[in-house]
Specification:
three-stranded antiparallel β-sheet, single chain, alpha+beta
Amino acid sequence: MRVYVPLTLSGLAAAHRAGEIGPGPLTAYAVTPGLREWYVSDDIEELEYAALNRAAAASLRLIAQNPDIVRRRVVVAVDVPDGAAVADPDRSLDASSLGEVRIASAVALTDAASVHVDADDAEKDVAAAAAALGAADLGDDDAQFTVDGAEDHELLWFGIQEIPNLIG
């Protein structure tokens, strides 16, 4: 099963040093029944893209929690055994948890398929979105517009062998 783990650049650097993303439990995003129902599509590529975007939004939340880190969203796509990623059935109707899964233990970085990172030119919009996230959560439409501005940036695709260049 392909899962999308939200990180930050400093989190990616730590994972690179350790050789794994962890420790567990990890929150990740995947094509879950709830995501399928919400997205109303049978196209697996569209559904995986939706899960990737959910992970990018979670990465933004990680960035918002730490004002000292680089303002670029990071998502690592990892292949885990079927059954390793479990959705919380009690939160299946909660829109904020669509596609969210838990992985009990750390995952080896060698199991990663790719890394997705904002381009340098997204930093300004990601910084503004991180600053506006709290107000957006409280229903401020202008703040939500700012958060949506970060989502306008597509994450770039990188192979795992490119991680040293990303964190260097």
